[in-house]
Amino acid sequence: MMVLAEAGGRLAAQPKPLTVFLAGDSTMAKKLPEKRPETGWGEMLVDFFQDGKVIIDNRAQNGRSTRTFISEGRWQAIVDALRPGDYVFIQFGHNDESKEKTDRYTPPADYRNNLIRFVSEVRDKKATPVLLTPVMRRRFDKEGKLQDTHGEYPDIVRSIAAEYKVALIDMHRSSAAVLAKYGAEESRKLFLQLKPNENPNYPNGIEDNTHFNPLGAKVMASLAVERVRESRLPLVKYLKKRLNH
Q1: Residue 242 lies in a domain
Q2: Is the peptide bond before 37 cis (omega within 30 degrees of 0)?
Q3: 18, 91, 97, 126: least surrounded by Cβ within 10 Å?
Q4: Is the dihedral of CA 240, 20, 213, 146 positive or negative?
């Protein structure tokens, strides 16, 4: 689709910006004012793309698994909105793996089938699916070693990416490396960690080891962008150049 822009007294055809849709859970989603400073890393992606070239359409939603994203019609809404050349970044796992939360739990086999469906339906619309493994939670043992909480789910994403030749952004491994580098205490700076009365939204304070503050969201978004830079996706050409400091 083209839009018309005034150029030298004439109407010149301009390509309409492509859209990157985000399908995922609360680690990626846009937050309500009453939840700030909690920030989804998907909110920060727009800062890395050239102005006017890419629209980030963040459809990620708190508490959703692949199963509930489908059952609530959220996935179909993305498919219906897709145009050729668009992208869909797909990151689930945090809620799919939650056996104790039966309203959202998705067994591994169903998780795999849902992701395969996502890939197929995006490609049917001549758009590009990009699979992302879930980001790490902040969980360290007594020795200060980072502990994984995602079990087999990240490997399911990796296997689908390999089998179906889908671009993969391995947030699980890259975020693990960052958290390990920060360490048990310093990594608090990336998450929603507040003392009582530090923020009016959280008068009793909060120690959240899953969701990010603005700094953490920015760091996670930068990890995703670096993986895009390393890929062969045409999306690379719309990224802003790295700033030299």
Answers
A1: no
A2: yes
A3: 126
A4: negative
Tell me the CB-side half-sphere exposure of residue 71, using CA atoms within 13 A: 9
- Between CA 123 and CA 50, with CA 13 as vertex, the angle to 5 degrees is 65
Domain-located, residue 6: no
Domains in the chain: how many in total?
1
Q: Which of 94, 150, 172, 211 is catalytic?
A: 211
Domain assignment present for residue 178? The answer is yes
* Residue ranges with strand state E in 68-212: 87-91, 128-132, 167-169, 191-194, 206-212
Residue at 4 is within a domain: no
Given 72, 163, 198, 207, the catalytic residue:
207
30 Cβ neighbours under 8 A, 6+ residues apart: 40, 42, 43, 58, 60
pTM of the predicted protein model = 0.93
Q: Among this protein's residues, is 211 annotated catalytic?
A: yes
CATH number at residue 43: 3.40.50.1110
pLDDT per position as a tens digit, 1-32: 434 344 444 555 567 899 999 999 999 999 99
Q: What residues contact residue 176 under an 8 Å CB cut-off, 6+ apart? A: 136, 146, 148
Catalytic entry in 26, 65, 174, 175? 26
